[in-house]
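Checklist before submission:
- one chain only
- standard amino acids only
- sequence pasted in full

Submission:
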Amino acid sequence: MTQMEQNNQHNISGGPQIFGWCMYDWANSAYVTTVVAGVLPIYFATAIVGKAGVQIGNTVVSADALWAYLVSASAMFVFLFAPVLGAISDFSASKKKFLITFAYTGSICATLLYFCQSGDVWRTATLFLIAQIGYVGANVFYDAFLPQIASEDKIDWVSSKGFSYGYIGGGLQFAITLGLVAGRGIIGIGQGLAARIGMGMAGLWWAGFTLFTLKKLKEAEAIESMPEKYQSQPKIIAYTAIGITRTLATIRKVRRFKHLLLFLIAFMVYNDGVQTVISMATIYGTEELGFSATILMVTLLMIQIIAAGGALLFGRIAGKIGAKRALMLALLLWSGVVTYAYFLHTVTEFFILGAVVGIVLGGSQALSRSFYGAMIPKEASAEFYGFYSVFSKFSAIWGPLVFAIIRQITGTPRLAIISLMIFFIVGLILLAFVDEEKAKEAKRSGAF
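Returned file contents:
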């Protein structure tokens, strides 16, 4: 590590920095849990679009299809621009500025969802799309702080702590929203207004608690000065040119560094399984098991609460047996989850499944992030986390497709859910060939 890197690490690491970093997970998880997962999909389908769908040209698009397009569009934005934005933020030492800008863009749009009523299709779609871009874009820079605020021996624990804050914060705000929806008759409001208030509160929660991050989290100094050939150009043009150049260089680096690339491929495979389980769980519970919306929402809240402990638990396990072995253990448990889901029938069994999902969800997400963070250079953390975000978003495509095809061919979601085991097994095998020590040695020696 160079003297400048040591100084930067000293300047931005420490308890207050870690607290400020963790509080952003507390802040934005309210949006994910309440708006993206809990309230808006139902409100969008039943009140905003309705069963008739929406006319686009000569085609009628259903609510769930339009919802999927919006999610895909926001992910595509990150896929295209995150690596460049990450490179620019590293070069200009402006990760915090990018984080805050994306965060408040997203939180303001999430808050404005309160004003979206029945039939406001395009207003809702626009606000949600911008909110999603704000959320995912901010996370690129949020993740990039991890190698700078935590030493190598603490990175697993700090990552787990961040996820734990997120699960608790998101779960608490979701519980408030559930209480509002459940008790709407007592206070004399309709279900639609209760949903809108819940989404507005989630946006305000996101914006309000981000103030802790704004106050506590500090930016590192610039890694290097502006090259002479760019000094006469406007900053936005210069940074964009530098960002594109560094992104292309990062692609070449990743291709040459086999252990980092192998982990990214493994992550893309097993994360596909994780994201599919999360996205299809409520549909599986509704269509195959016939459970009510109340049972499903209570299970979601339970998963949030348990996942906070799961993230911390796997952080401790990683400290004893190593991040790689702990992550492999989580993948074995995920294989058990989809196997158990194939056989379950009762509400009690569904709650047990939810508890296990909470434990492994928190652990696998936290350890994936910290394991990757331990293998990349601190001076290019946003640049490399941009690629991590790209792989994360790209991995959400194939699992749902496999699920849908098998569901259609066999006529039962049970075979579709157990088929997801292939993602965890293949990911586990690929992960076994990743040599963490060689990757860290390459990072320290400048082999990137």
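Reviewer check: The longest strand covers residues 54-56.
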